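Let's practice the habit of predicting before peeking. Look at the sequence and jot down your guess about where helices and strands might fall. Then scroll down.
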Amino acid sequence: MSMLHTGGGVTAHRLLLGSQLRRLREARGVSREDAGYSIRASESKISRMELGRVGFKERDVADLLTLYGLDHGDERTTLLGLIAEANAVSWWHGYEDVVPTWFQTYLGLEEAASSIASYEIQYVPGLLQTEAYARAVVLLGRHNAEPEEVDRRVAVRMRRQQVLASRRAPALHAVLDEAALRRPCGGPDVMRGQLRHLIEAAGRPGVRLQVVPLGTDLPGAEAGAFSVLGFAEAELPDVVYLEQFTSALYLDRPAEVAEYAAALRRLSEASLSPERSLALLRTVHEEI
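Done guessing? Here is the structure:
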């Protein structure tokens, strides 16, 4: 078993523990059905545990490790030590009224990621939005929402951005369409503030910002907006996130991830360089 790096939040701990349980079960030749029987649970629960989609009972994990031939030693101690962290309550649980379950999964992945690469068409990426711009975006989607709901939705977006200021901030590569910069979201003052924020963000270490100029023939744009999240832990596969109107898709099959990674490379190659993108940001800011 390789060294586990466990600094990436609750979701990372769940994914790591689940992936190790799956690895041990398969190495021992134990079926999910038999594993479930050993802990008085169903095959589907074993599947959810291995995918990191449920909490973990220490007794269940201990019994499974024994079944898989890991009844003592450092590896068993390490895996049992992950349980408390995997079961911790995440910050977004305090916002469950405005954060749907399908998006909570993304928040966990975003918090755990060591790299985030995205392509955006309509709006500035959430991790780079100002509070005023985020409020305008929320109001566009929920113009009848009560002020308190709007405030809480904006608060979630601002809280997400703390990941960029953390000790293990992910490398961020954002490719966005010029149309997102020119779309009047919230009015001139809001857009000027947002553009100033992007100009500042583009100068940060670990942030690569590229703009696709209007009229560009885009290879890969047919995929629509998407994000590719990578993780420092070798045990965790890259994940593609595709947000839909009332749900989201999470893809982690290597072939699918490779297709989106290739699409992002093509989009990046068709975009302005980071230096020329910064110049365009300044130009658009002056024009507003």
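How did you do? Residues 100-128+164-287 form a domain with the Endonuclease; Chain A fold (CATH 3.30.870.10).
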